[in-house]
Write a structure and sequence with these properties.
Chain lengths: 171, 528
């Protein structure tokens, strides 16, 4: 595991040069990857894709001069949004981006059947649940990320929670 | 029941360590990205494979009749390759087999009737050119010939179908086909008398009397180590190289002594279409170079199809050609240099308004919900979308044009575009390389929660419905009869789910006022 200076991560970094970008990459990679891994629930390939695409976007934006100073929040938000977008497109990309895929992780049974429980949710519900309760984002932020209203998001979360409770009571 | 499961979910152990070496690889790539124009996107190592079917489909009849096609020379008027952006068919509802279409390729001078001895070649179901004085003349915008053929027959009048023509496939086997003008100037070859498309691409059809190259079997590629290196230089090293299908024919593609290798990458997320190739290239061991014929090695290109029967030598110069079919356009491409020898375009499928929407899709084939045959989340050809929808609804009422999506989540890709016809709104996303995805659509009330308005007013109803008639104005209760797997009734909002079909219906007084498939316009995330 990397040694990371928390203070270095939390501050904003100048990415107007390749050296600046690389330095930011060094200090932010771990946190960004961790965020992606949580979202993808240990699907390493999917997490790597998210991290990769987020950094590529940053690099392009920085090179174009669209982004000059950036903090880790920019990357984490980008990862979340990319993830949401991909989950929405799961039908065409589910071979590598399924939210609950566990190609490299412990078998489902050892986690109390979470994978099967979450598999029973719609992609949108699953993402909302993860953002709200694993990422600890407020509902308003989840709503923004999902591109919908707070009311609709609350409804979505209620529905998802109801399904989870039902699934767990059955199991 | 309590929500202690939330704590359980939070505390679930997740492996947060990346693959060894990933960080170094990505660092190097970012530095490369900084110094160069385009980044290498990491593609999944898993995808399906498609082998060319070197067909030997035996047909039984071998008559040598070609009387349907006529050629006229020296006509510089409209050619099939210059199909108008908006087809000249009526904007009224039309059937899938229009009976009133006529050949648009009216020759300006007396056509040269060429009869049974005439030779022509069709690739992927479209006539690409003919042989005049023993030379191949392409049927394209730049060519000097005009082809004419009978119009598609009237469905209601079987007698209107012309007689079958016996044509040869690549292997020389004969089969019965029907040759038509589709109604927009494209001369098509169909295995059915009604012109219906059957199964996958048609490969090659031709008249007799000309020797084509062959591509039977595969042999060991030459200098595979150098090919590995060349692929790696394109960002296709290690695992990514496994995504590249390598096919070495027994015959040289350029008539020299060495055997080239054909390279393919596929986008297996494409459903219900054989247009799933995103990169087609030739490895030439003589020059140790990879020559891209179409697409992009790292993906992200608009998917296309190569000829299902492999390349042949169409023009008799010893070099092989293949067809590249993208959307409605079929190009005849020479493999030695990637030159386009001919280009023709199919007419769009024509829809009735009452069958333009498929809400549910198909579970076994994973075909998604669709509008005018364009699937939700599927790659589409913009031009094909404009022509197909325009054939029924006319010119768009509003079109944002391509807008950058960089700051406009939840859309992805480089650009997005919203287009409005009456009350039908389509949202497209465009990725690097031109890959265009149908990301969303809505019909009716644009104030739908998941459907913020395009900057335009709806001035007319499109009247689009499913085959069963579900659409704007239908009763709320009829949603449940459409075959959705789940329907959530939340009052004025109804969410209905099926195969990749997350629809949101808006209702007023128990009548549907609009519906949209899940996604917002791309600016929604920023606006909300």
């Amino acid at each position: 595991m990397w040694q990371v200076d928390v203070n270095d991560v939390s501050r904003e970094h100048d990415v107007t040069t390749v050296d600046g970008l690389t330095a930011f990459y060094e200090v932010s990679f771990e946190e960004v990857y961790r965020s992606a891994a949580r979202l993808t629930r240990g699907d390493r390939a999917a997490a790597e894709d998210l991290v990769h695409d987020a950094f590529v976007r940053l690099t392009r934006a920085a090179r174009a001069g669209d982004v000059t100073v950036v903090g880790i929040g920019w990357l984490v938000t980008t990862v979340r949004r990319l993830h949401i977008d991909r989950v929405r497109s799961a039908g065409r990309e589910d071979h590598r981006l399924r939210l609950t895929a566990r190609r490299d992780t412990t078998p489902v049974e050892q986690h109390g059947g979470w994978s099967s429980v979450l598999d029973g949710l719609r992609d949108r519900e699953r993402v909302a649940l993860m953002l709200r309760y694993v990422e600890d984002l407020p509902v308003s932020e989840v709503a923004e990320l999902l591109g919908t209203t707070v009311r609709a998001t609350e409804s979505l979360l209620q529905r998802a929670k109801r399904k989870v409770r039902t699934a767990r009571s059955v199991s | 029941m309590s929500d202690d499961w939330i704590d359980e979910l939070r505390s679930e152990p997740v492996d947060t360590d990346p693959r060894p070496g990933f960080m170094d690889e990505l660092r190097a790539e970012l530095q490369h990205e900084w110094e160069n124009e385009s980044a290498t996107m990491i593609d999944s190592p898993t995808h399906g494979r498609r082998r060319w079917a070197v067909a030997a489909a035996a047909a039984s009849i071998a008559a040598l009749v070609v009387g349907l096609v006529t050629i006229t020379a020296g006509d510089d008027a409209v050619t099939p390759a210059t199909v108008p952006d908006r087809v000249s068919t009526s904007t009224q509802a039309t059937t899938s087999n229009p009976s009133t279409t006529t050949a648009t390729a009216t020759p300006a001078r007396e056509p040269i009737a060429i009869g049974p001895a005439t030779e022509f070649v069709a690739g992927d179901g479209v006539v690409l050119g003919a042989y005049i004085d023993d030379a191949f003349v392409s049927y394209s915008a730049d060519s000097d010939i005009r082809l004419t053929a009978p119009a598609l027959p009237d469905d209601s009048d079987p007698a209107s179908a012309p007689p079958a023509v016996s044509l040869l496939d690549r292997t020389g086997e004969p089969g019965d086909y029907y040759v038509y003008d589709e109604g927009c100037g494209a001369i098509v070859v169909s295995p059915t008398p009604g012109g219906q498309q059957v199964g996958s691409a048609l490969g090659w059809q031709r008249t007799v009397g000309r020797s084509f190259g062959t591509l039977d079997g595969a042999t060991q590629e030459e200098n595979p180590e150098a090919l590995d290196d060349a692929l790696a230089a394109l960002g296709l090293g290690d695992g990514a190289a496994e995504d590249v299908e390598r096919l070495t024919p027994q015959e040289s593609l350029d008539a020299d002594s060495s055997l080239e290798t054909m390279l393919f990458r596929y986008d297996t997320s494409v459903v219900g279409s054989d247009q799933n190739v995103v990169w087609f290239a030739i490895w030439d061991p003589d020059t140790a170079e990879i020559r891209t014929i179409a697409g992009r090695p790292t993906g992200g290109a608009k998917p296309f199809a190569t000829n299902g029967e492999g390349p042949i030598d169409v023009d008799g110069d010893g070099n092989l050609e293949t067809t590249i079919t993208t959307g409605l356009t079929v190009e005849l491409v020479r493999l030695t240099d990637g030159a386009t020898l001919a280009r023709a375009r199919r007419c769009p499928d024509l829809y009735e308004r009452s069958a333009a929407i498929e809400f549910v899709g198909d579970q076994p084939s994973r075909r998604p919900a669709s509008v005018f045959g364009f699937g939700y989340g599927e790659p589409v050809d913009l031009e094909e979308v404009l022509v197909t929808v325009g054939a029924v609804l006319g010119e768009p009422d509003a079109d944002t044009g391509w807008r950058p999506a960089a700051d406009a989540f939840p859309c992805s890709g480089d650009d997005y575009r919203s287009i409005l016809w009456d009350d039908l709104r389509l949202v497209l996303e465009r990725w690097p390389g031109g890959l265009t995805i149908l990301a969303a659509w809505s019909v009716g009330d644009v104030d739908l929660e998941f459907s913020p308005p395009l900057e335009a007013d709806i001035t007319a109803s499109s009247g689009l419905t499913s085959v069963s008639g579900l659409g704007v104005g239908s009763s709320k209760s009829s949603i449940a009869d459409e075959g959705f797997a789940q329907v959530y009734d939340a009052g004025d909002h109804v969410e209905a789910l099926a195969v990749r079909s997350p629809f949101m219906f808006e209702t007023t007084d128990d009548r549907i006022s609009g519906f949209s498939i899940e996604r917002n316009d791309c600016t929604a995330g920023a606006d909300s």
